[in-house]
Structures are given as C-alpha cells and as structure tokens.
Design a protein that fits this description.
This protein is an alpha+beta fold. Helices cover about 35% and strands about 25% of the residues. The protein has helices at about 5-10, 15-30, 85-95; strands spanning about 35-40, 45-50, 55-65, 65-70, 80. The protein is globular.
Length: about 100
C-alpha cells in the first residue's frame, strides 16, 4: 500500500475519512462504557457495532450533502452530525434503551 499521499498532505479519500469517523466513534463509545467493534465487510458499508441484548446496534458513517453523519436506523431521529460534540452520547442513549 502506498502511504506517500498521507505523507505529502494531500486530501484523504472519502473511504479514509469514513474509517476515521468510525474509529473515533468506537473509541468515544468505549470511553462511555460500551463494547464496540469496527467492521469492514467486503460487501457492505463499514460500521461500528455495539453488541446488546436487543440485538446489535450498527452505526454507519455517511457523507450527505458534504456533511459526515452517523446513522443507526431509518428514522429521522436516528442520525447525527459526525462532528457534533454529543454524537457519541446520543448513540450511547440509543444503544442502552
């Protein structure tokens, strides 16, 4: 793998940014007391998975209109700006319900 692009300071790809958002979220949720996994499946979107009794909560990072968001469902209340300071807390609340 050629890492020279990162060393030269050129812009990250969307896939790299997506991964960075997911890893940051996984750490934030871990600090809030949740077990997390970052999954990079070949045929599906990369995601953070939070195991729970009601079934795993799956969170994806998506670029929508030049804004990175986390989403964990289909409802209009199941997404948040990935850079919002309370993103991990909102997702934590959804995970422990």
């Amino acid at each position: 793998m050629d890492h020279s692009r990162a060393a030269s300071g050129s812009k990250r790809t969307d896939a790299e940014q997506q991964y960075i958002h997911l890893v940051r979220l996984a750490w934030d949720l871990r600090w809030l007391g949740l077990e997390t996994r970052v999954e990079l499946p070949l045929s599906k979107e990369p995601r953070v998975v939070v195991p729970r009794a009601a079934g795993p909560l799956r969170v994806i990072a998506t670029l929508r209109a030049e804004l990175w968001i986390y989403s964990w469902g289909r409802g209009h209340t199941q997404w948040i700006d990935a850079l919002a300071g309370d993103a991990a807390r909102d997702i934590h609340k959804a995970a422990v319900r």
